[in-house]
Design goal:
With 232 residues, the protein is mainly α. It has one domain. 71% of the residues lie in helices and 3% in strands. The protein is built from eleven helices and two strands; from the N terminus they run H-H-H-H-H-H-H-E-E-H-H-H-H. The two termini are 21 Å apart.
Length: 232
């Protein structure tokens, strides 16, 4: 039987859903003792006067941040791997930057989407993460430019693919890789972003103005709809 990408995605989603269900149950078991206090706090802050759509929109935004940052983490980790079995050694052996370009496209897409989502949901922690990601990139601006990756005025990234394809692998590895390189920094920061956003969704999903929690199905739908598929 031929295994397709969709089959792999479905299997991954199933496994990830099982993990999320475990987290949901753990959360639900701890909710009852805190419900009254949390409802009182929400009433005190006037949140009960907000429409239900506020909570769903807020959750979708956080789920989007979590999903995009997971995509960034995955590609950044791949680009930070060195050694004889790493992606740079493979490019040298094959005398082609093709796979490097594919992974770098994913990294650039994940980075751009993550900082956009963080900007669209401003908070102290989100602004901190956004600036941390941007600093990791801007510190390597000259090395990136040399291999065809431009840091734009808004700190987003773009690739000049022809320049990248013809760039020396050593220069690409110098710009992107290494144990303490840019992509390792991006991977570490995006992991923190994903965990932070996921915790907010876990603790606040579908908590509406009546002080009630939604079903696991609504929670899982918010997460997967927010981009968690992109981690597989």
């Amino acid at each position: 039987m031929r295994i397709t990408s969709n089959m792999l995605y479905n299997k991954a989603d199933s496994m990830y859903a099982s993990m999320l269900y475990g987290r949901y149950n753990a959360l639900s078991n701890s909710v009852s003792s805190r419900t009254a206090a949390k409802k009182a706090a929400i009433q005190k802050n006037g949140y009960l006067n907000l429409p239900d759509s506020f909570y769903q929109t807020n959750n979708n935004a956080q789920a989007g941040i979590a999903g995009r940052s997971e995509a960034l983490r995955s590609s950044a980790l791949n680009l930070s791997s060195g050694g004889k079995n790493g992606i740079y050694a493979s490019a040298r052996n094959n005398k082609s930057n093709g796979n490097l370009l594919l992974e770098t496209r994913q990294m650039v897409s994940g980075y751009n989407a993550t900082i956009k989502n963080l900007r669209n949901k401003p908070s102290t922690i989100n602004t901190y993460y956004q600036r941390s990601l941007e600093n990791a990139v801007t510190q390597n601006k000259e090395a990136l430019e040399k291999v065809g990756i431009t840091v734009n005025r808004d700190n987003s990234l773009s690739i000049r693919e022809q320049t990248f394809r013809s760039a020396d692998v050593d220069d690409i590895e110098n710009a992107l890789g290494g144990a303490n390189g840019m992509t390792r920094q991006l991977a570490n920061i995006s992991d923190s972003v994903s965990q932070s956003a996921s915790r907010e969704v876990l603790s606040n999903f579908a908590y509406n103005r009546y002080g009630s929690y939604g079903s696991f199905e609504s929670y899982l739908s918010a997460l997967l709809g927010g981009g968690f598929n992109s981690r597989f």
